[in-house]
Amino acid sequence: MSSRPIRFRRRAQAEADQLEEPATEAAALAKKLGLDPYPVNYWIVGHDEMNQLIAYGGFQRRYPHWRWGMTYDRQQKQDQFGMGKAFEIVNNDDPSHAFLQESNSLADQKAVITHVEGHADFFKNNNWFSRFSGDQELDAAAMLERHGETIQGYVDDPDIDRDDVERFIDAVLCLEDTIDQHRPVDVDPDTERTQPTDLRDQLDQLDLSDDVQQQVFDQEWLDELAESEAASASIDHPRTDVLGFLRDHATTYDHEEDEAVSMESWQLDILDTLRREAYYFAPQKMTKVMNEGWASIVESLMMSDEGFADADEFITYADHQSRVLGSPGLNPYKLGKELWEYVENSANRREVADKLLRVEGITWQNFHAEIDFEHVRALLEPDPRIDAISSDTVEQLTSLPGDDPRIDWEMLDRALSNPETINIDRYPWKVLTYEGLAERHFSLVQPQHRGFLEQIRRSELQEHARYLFDDTRYDTVEDAIDDVDKTAGWDRMREVRESHNDVTFIDEFLTQEFVSENNYFTYEYTQTTEDYRVASTDYQDVKQKLLLQFTNFGKPTIAVFDDNFKNRGELLLGHRYNGIALDIQQATAVLERMHDLWGRPVNLMTITKTYEEHEVEVARRRNREPEPTETGVRLRYDGHEVTRSELDKDLTDRIRAADIDYDTKPDEWLA
Q1: Which residue ranges make up each domain of the chain?
Q2: Percentage of the chain modeled with pLDDT above 70
């Protein structure tokens, strides 16, 4: 990192002193809200330092490579020309390190701090992140610094050509996402592969004479059978951790000798290092929507609902939030925040409906006719003594029962006996517990969600009624609402936070109700008019398009199918075709890099789409979409040229994904 003039360091120190209290109180409120974040170290940095950190993925030390300079240059231009502003960057580490840009306003810095607390909680408690560290303590900064020093050592080694090191790193980075992100980094998937029983071994166990074996079984046929079954077993269990496969086989291409040779120790070390880093960063790619949405929810609750933004900062904060949530394109902050709100609202609605269905005379059939939803919302409003806490009203909390779980009685006693120790007007949440805060912020009474309860479908009510196992009943609606667990939504959110990634999160919680309420739709490119048009507002179509964006980091899934293709030592890779064709030019370039790592010819199976000009013209005249022709092809690179051949039907069927169709083109376009 670059050194900075003293005057700028003093300015950063002054700003850090100003942010000490918000950082301390944000961490304390996070605990009250039921969060359990990593401790966070905050750093104030300038524009140039921030751009360096973003280029390095949030860390101060990485291995030497030109990619960092390219990323830095892009980020610097975005910052310079107003194409996007970086408010902060935080890394997944224990403790986490958050870097705040010095030019941010105080309102921006507070927003960043509350946002970071959400990230630190997600890093610590989402199971996909723990798959990397396991039971060991996480120290990512030290790990990445060690990696950087190791690779720098190879670059500086006079016995190793620097260009060879850079070329090798380039080749590995082309494949950095070809890992099995659903497994821990040290699990060997090859242990799950079972080789077929060799018929020749079985015959030997029968102790048959040579004459009998020769009369019944042809030796050449037995050899061919064993080879074909072994090849079939490999193809039936492709390996998705391509980097792990290459590490285990440890061969590379020698450009001078024009042949495959064993990897040198430095190559193995670099390959293993970069693979480990790919596994470290994989959970962040797998949970981008969840993680950013979770942090945005925490930020909004602290800044808006609990008043971390002062009255004179609120407009600035509102502008900050609108810029983040209003960014164009597929915005993970907006999508994530809306989905988390839907999870919370759905859990709270289920809890309220569960209680109301137990009221005498209320059934799922007459629910909408009998329930006065305005009255129910009024009953769900928080106790005024909890909702409006100030230095003038805090004493009213003493009128509540002494065992009321909503009140932090120890803090309340301090606030009343030593009011100078707790600024109740600034931090009223200090005298509340998790239960008290859940009531204070119960989602179904928030203005933006007040119509959510009555939107419940009859089918959902029928399902609730079917699973009312206990016999608890209520005489009145008032009694039922009084028994509602106001923590239901937050409890459910924490459960989901622990186990899901973006793919499972979207698959489970994106419903037609969510799509309609938030105005999501799909669009497709039409061959007939050569432009993009609105295709569908059906939630299944929207879900499929989103899942395409997030499955395997939104990149093609490539797996190793055979390491001895046609018994020639060639590598056979397969593209898991899901209706989206590969960019053949890019695929060819990656094959060339793959050849450098394998050392022998590399094959790639895929399926291409073509459109006949005549078919396109006929479709245009009839106002419909042309049907593409799908053809299985095998690309082969032997170190000199790429050749293309038709793929066997059996192999074409093997790489075609079953029951997945990302094409949402309708019979008639919506717009």
Answers
A1: 1-189+270-293, 334-518, 556-669
A2: 88
